[in-house]
Amino acid sequence: MKFSELGIHDDLLDAIDYMGFENATPIQEQAIPQILDGKDLIACAQTGTGKTAAFLLPILDLLIDLPGGETTTLIIVPTRELAIQIDQQVQGIAYTMGIHSIAIYGGGDADDWGQQRRALTQGADIVIATPGKLISHLNLGYVKFDTIKYLILDEADRMLDIGFYDDIIKIISYLPKERQTLMFSATMAPKIRTLTQKILKNPAEINIAMSKPAEGVLQAAYLIYNQQKNRLISHLISENKDYNSILIFCSTKRAVNELARTLKKQRFAAEAISSDLEQSEREEVLQGFRSKRIRILVATDVMSRGIDIKDINLVVNYDVPQDAEDYVHRVGRTARADSTGVALTLVNEDDMYKFHQIEQLIEREVFKIPIPEHIGIGPEWKNPGARSKQRKGKFHKQKKGGSGQRYKKSFNKKK
Known about the structure:
The chain is α/β, with parallel strands linked by helices. It has 2 domains: about 5-210, Rossmann fold; about 215-410, P-loop containing nucleotide triphosphate hydrolases (Rossmann fold). The chain is about 40% helix and about 15% strand. The chain is built from 15 helices and 16 strands. It has a 7-stranded parallel β-sheet with strand order 3-4-2-5-6-1-7, sandwiched between helices. Strands 10-11-9-12-13-8-14 form a 7-stranded parallel β-sheet, sandwiched between helices. The protein has a two-stranded antiparallel ribbon with strand order 15-16. β10, α12 (about 280-290) and β11 (about 295-300) form a beta-alpha-beta unit. The chain is globular. It starts with 9 loop residues before the first helix and ends with a helix. Mean pLDDT is about 85; it is low at about 385-405.
């Protein structure tokens, strides 16, 4: 469906057209009419499906004809990176419409705090905030949210995973009871259902492609011992020089920093990003990665949701994520907006059961491939609950042009 068929304001259509978009994604096609109709909404869709525009476009449409100077919209998000990203998207779409936004997040200096306070007291149209920092402002008593008409919770499941349930409930206690509430989540876990029942009124419900990586993601796994991982990472980077944007996930900050140091010593253009960095440092690293000046970004799961960086060729899970859902969000950083990409996971002998749980979640068996001979021999796939597609170090035969052959073509260029 074209955006022009969704009843969106002409000024927004012009902005969308200028950005090169014409057709709505499924989540946008279903959510926009419901939001414009004034309904509360719970929407569940995988990362990379256009959820942000699904709520921003109708909210901006509703705000165009309202007088400015009052905060009418509150968007709550789990991370400062996502807050900054949404703020930038609002500015990019609505800069000619007189609609103003502010991102409220931690990690800044006194000037940032002062700017946030002024916006909260003088009235930015849209406030995008992380829960902890917003509560810090609320506790000081100068924030007035009695003009809020629209509340959006983005990446709601992630906020609950982090432990923000009580913070969310406290923030909502400051809001008018008569409002439109929208909740967007990648999963529909029981705790999301509980929150939905508590804060939404007769919501419409949308479920799209839950908990599965996009079709354009080519997935595979290496069975490997921990001491072999760094050599394999270096091999993959060296053998695929045409990949100019590589994102590697580690589960701990220590592993992130150690791997980044190792890659730098090998003269790869690599940087680490984690909560150890100051906000200005993180933004500088992200900008370098977006501009392709930094080829390899090594990150913790703070990067696995809400960061919209285009044209990431390869995502590597240095280790298997603790939560099967996190796998979906990690690999969802590639193959965004109908593009294609590759996602590889390094699975040691202790993580095979966790990886099998991931396969059950995504309802497919991921190809297991042998590590290159010069690196050594990896462990065998021992999970009795899954039928491996590895047989004596070879793939089973695939249909011509199937994903197995595409994978081998991409990553077995050299023996």
